[in-house]
Amino acid sequence: MISQEKNSGSAATPDVPVKIDRAHPVTLREVAEAAGVSTATVSLVINKKKNARIAEETRERVKDAIRHLGYRPNAMAKNLVSGTSKFIGLVADGVATTPFAGQIIHGAQDEAWKHGYALLIANTEGNLDLEKDAIAMMLEYKVRGILYSTWFHRPTDVPETLRESDFVLVNCFSPDSSTSRAVVPDEAQGGQSATEILLRGGHRRIAFINTTTPAPAKDGRLKGYQDALEAAGIPFDPSLVLEAYPDQEGGYGATEELLKRNVSAVYCYNDRMAMGLYDGLRENGLSIPDDIAVVGFDNQEVIAAHLRPPLSTVSLPHYELGAAGVRMLLGLDKSPDGNLVKISCPAVERASVAVHSAA
Prior knowledge:
Blueprint: H1 4-8, H2 28-35, H3 39-46, H4 56-69, H5 75-82, E1 87-92, H6 103-114, E2 118-123, H7 128-140, E3 146-155, E4 167-173, E5 181-185, H8 187-200, E6 206-211, H9 216-231, E7 241-244, H10 248-253, H11 255-259, E8 265-268, H12 271-283, E9 293-295, H13 301-304, E10 313-314, H14 318-329, E11 340-343, E12 347-348
Parallel strand pairs: 1-2, 1-3, 3-4, 4-5, 5-11, 6-7, 6-8, 8-9
Antiparallel strand pairs: 10-12
Helix pairs in contact: 2-3, 2-4, 6-14, 8-9
């Protein structure tokens, strides 16, 4: 117990804050000595053991000592006792270094914080050894669960160590969807929205420049294009679907073949492809949107918003993917389709599409 000399001298009392000048963290024993109780009592108060037989006055004395001394509980020790922590892990293969995909981290971080959790982030750049070590570290910290994310939408193999924790796949999915939950962009809906921008502009002969690279986006965005044409009563014409490498050079290189199709509008697989198409059309003396309307996909702000004219496109919902991943991990979101949640890709209409006079 604290002696009368300590209480009547300069030592801390519950009512008088004292500035502590120290080079090491406050210990449990120091809190116990300041409150005049055992370390076991302090531990019971810190861990909020309401059934423990501790007088309310004693609890308050311990809390005052904790506050005045600036004691911080050992999070690792608490994690071991509770079996979990207030951390959520995020393991990514390149999201943190990819400007627009980095919004996945932003969304996950905001949503985690909203529910009282902090995010532990590991960017592995595809290094499997680093990935294994990152997951092991997160398991040691008893994270609430782990988000496993890729910088582009694709199927993935779930690391075995990931299955030792609750986890959600973000922007990727496992072919075995029965054993894992995933949050992905709705590529087909996005492709439909992109095509509908052109349909609303009065266009009927619309080309689609798809990617040569196999991916869920290649199939989904084509399906959305077909669905939009069908809903508008326009027969699908396979000759209006071209393929090119999904970058600026690919879009530029597709221009010659596109112009042979006699179309009034074109929907591009992504914004980089649309940027190259802009160059190709201008070299051929064509104006956007007066001669031909153009729509992209991704809404990469550094491209879409700064082309002349600014590019109509569809946004990949990276922020919402991260936020939805956290909600799914915490059991706040459930999918009507079982373990897969598809996030809508909103249309972003700019000046590359104008109302077309042809019926």
